[in-house]
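Students often ask what a 'structure token' actually looks like in practice. Rather than answer in the abstract, let us consider Proline--tRNA ligase, a protein of 570 residues. Its sequence is given first.
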Amino acid sequence: MKQQKMLIPTLREVPSDAEVASHKLMLRAGLIRQLASGVYSYLPLGYKVLKKVEAIVREEMDKSGAQEILTSAIQPAELWKKSGRWDAYGPELMRLQDRHQRDFVLGPTHEEVFTSLMRDEVNSYKKLPVNLYQIQTKYRDERRPRFGVIRAREFIMKDAYSFDTNTDGLDESYKAMYDAYHRIFTRCQLNYRAVEADAGTIGGHGGTHEFMALSEIGEDTIVHCSACGFAANIEKAEVIDLNSGTDTATNANVEPVELVETPNVKTVKEVAEYLGIEAGKVIKTLLYKVDDDIVAVLLSGDDELNEIKLKNLFDAELIELLSDEQVESITGDKPGYVGPINLIDKIKIVADNKIQYADNAVCGANKVDYHYKQVNYPRDFAVEKFADLRNIKEGEPCPKCQAAVSFSQGIEVGHVFKLGTKYSEAMGAKYLDENGSSQLMVMGCYGIGVSRTVAAIVEQHSDENGIVWPKEVAPFQVHVIPVNVKNDKQRELATLIYEQLLAKGIEVLYDDRQERAGVKFKDADLIGIPIRVVVGAKADEGIVELKLRTTGASRDVSIDDIISDILAEL
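Now compare that with the structural description of the same chain:
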């Protein structure tokens, strides 16, 4: 491809709204342009990379035995109502109506569509197992789109759905996808981990793993153990109750409860400082709406609630932290002063396991500007249920081997789920077994964020000068640059190399622009094509420069050897 005619609008300045390396570089290198918040157009270079990643995904999915199809991004609301997700999915679901006021959604995922397809087309065990996949545009109305295509409202995803006759078959399908994902992300040269995860809005109660590209800007926290190899998303990581079995009634030098005035002191930090205690001695009370109930959640002041654990405790569809106005309306007290002692009866109280071992703690008194001191369980308040409700902390015991865990940040690029019969039961997807009996299909689903994977590659493969593309996903394999296209010898030699490489089936970008050498080299570094051939002052001698973008190493090569040397590097 001749660069003069190719749309590669590179930028010298970093766009003001770009926060992370991948967003900055994808804009500066002319890969993408924003159309609206969280919505992007892919320009020629970006689209070529996107198609390279898609090709890797497609090759490995086909190798695993999955079959590619393509369904509509527009889905009738009836399917989502039948599965129960029309109300449960939340405001991220993009809803619309046609001219006849019929409800539709722009699909963020396609469990309902694929399940209804299999329900209508497959009715015998003889036609199972089946694994279908597609690569398609998805939509999610993110509250806060950020980091370019990493968290966007429109994105490219590969989603696959397996249908088996039993759980043993599902285990095999899951393993095939799990292995395929390892091959895909390895070929993309990502530094990644497969971690245990929560199923989230997809649902299901079987196994699930996320594939995380390690990155400091990742929004997910990965908990991992170097001793046993355990790795999980922090949402999934269990906190071991090391005090289990302790007699909570005798584990403290119990003192009488005392009401103390705490004027204008509401937060855990403020209470701890005012009373001269550690934050861990404060019991914080968070009020949540859990489906149709109001629940008070008790935590140690130095811990963070894991909302996924709370949601799973109640097997709830929706949980929502009450606003300050809602707290005051329900309790009659201002936020910051709510506590478990004499809390109104209609509010259920659950607590993290640690709370039952708290000695002479402090909590809100359900009275503005007051707290209780010397609070102990079970003398002073009741709890309906104790559970692991908090996030694990770095250095705490591994849930598998009890060695200290470490944290890393990651970008979720893939997720595999064992759905079981959640959707087949809701959608009526059944088959006839060997005895002619009707049975529910057993399902799995498997997603890869294709556009997000591109951004993750840029995050991991870049330097201060620009992108450093891995060979298998680079938009071109070789960048041929004549320093001065007005010089006949340089132009002729560069053209010869360009044509010989094309004849070998090599993807080449030929910089035929009448630009200064400095501009060309800066653009070349920014675009990040793996191999660069510079035709300059030694062209008269039949010598060119061969430079590798990954290492920056360069050497002079004879024109007679340049093609073979390039092929050896690919």
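One point worth highlighting: The first helix runs from residue 21 to 28. Ask yourself how you might have guessed this from the sequence alone, and why that guess would often be unreliable.
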